[in-house]
Automatic annotation (TrEMBL):
Species of origin: Candidatus Segetimicrobium genomatis
Keyword Transcription: yes
A Pfam family assignment: Trans_reg_C
Domain of life assignment: Bacteria
Ranges where the Response regulatory domain occurs: 3-116
Recorded GO CC terms: cytosol; protein-DNA complex
PROSITE patterns from the UniProt entry: OMPR_PHOB, RESPONSE_REGULATORY
Name by which UniProt lists this protein: Response regulator transcription factor
Residue ranges of every copy of the OmpR/PhoB-type domain listed in the record: 124-219
UniProt keyword terms in alphabetical order: DNA-binding, Phosphoprotein, Transcription, Transcription regulation, Two-component regulatory system
A GO biological-process term: regulation of DNA-templated transcription
GO terms of molecular function: phosphorelay response regulator activity; transcription cis-regulatory region binding
Length: 219
């Protein structure tokens, strides 16, 4: 199970990110202060750090500099500013990637997985369930001997189900993990996209409805 350290002084956002990463199968540590984040990184040795630039004590640039001096850990930086100079500075300090707020959670999780794959040298990752195979590096989905064409959002939804096989997933959890902040509270979109997936996978029973709760990939 990959371990991630989330660092942000926005406690509400931090809580949402923590839940999202746990749903995605990560072990999570959190920090709201820069100094504490450096201490946690040294003691817990996470596989990756997601770091906000605008911290109240040490800013994210200083934290990144200290992490780089003490540890070989990948860092993805978050900021409310979409400023080229900030991006260049972050990358020059050794950050592996940079995400501007507001962002969709599925974009952040995709970037995290991409950085981890680069670090481990594993450029190919496949998820499978029954005769359904999803190649994350090529974004190709096959069912038996046929290719299934999916939109980017349908693909992310399928990946979420494949990462949690046979688990009952609530509509709210799916919405948060796949759509992030874009459609907060509008769980009807989950039902619509599950319908799209069922049609394209040609198997209404593969993703089963759990009445009053959500869905489960069971087949």
């Amino acid at each position: 199970m990959p371990r991630v350290l989330l660092v942000d002084d926005d406690r509400k956002l931090l809580s949402l990110l923590e839940r999202g990463f746990r749903f995605e199968g990560f072990e999570v540590q959190t920090a709201t202060l820069g100094v504490h984040s450096v201490e946690l990184a040294q003691s817990e040795r996470p596989d990756l750090v997601v770091l906000d630039i605008g911290m109240p004590d040490l800013n994210g640039f200083d934290v990144c500099r200290q992490l780089r001096a003490r540890l070989d850990v990948p860092v993805i930086m978050l900021t409310a500013r979409d400023d080229v100079e900030d991006k260049v500075r972050a990358l020059d300090l050794g950050a592996d990637d940079y995400v501007s707020k507001p962002f969709a959670f599925d974009e952040l999780i995709a970037r995290v997985r991409a950085v981890l794959r680069r670090r481990t040298g594993d450029a190919t990752e496949r998820l499978a369930f029954a005769d359904l195979v999803c190649d994350l590096s090529t974004r190709e989905v096959t069912r038996g001997n046929r290719t299934v064409a999916l939109t980017p959002r349908e693909f992310e939804l399928l990946v979420y189900f494949l990462r949690h096989p046979r688990q009952v997933l609530t509509r709210d959890a799916i919405l948060e993990a796949v759509w992030g902040y874009e459609l907060a509270g509008d769980t009807k979109v989950v039902d619509v996209y599950v319908g799209y997936l069922r049609q394209k996978l040609d198997s209404p029973q593969l993703i089963q409805t759990v009445r009053g709760v959500g869905y489960a990939l069971k087949g």
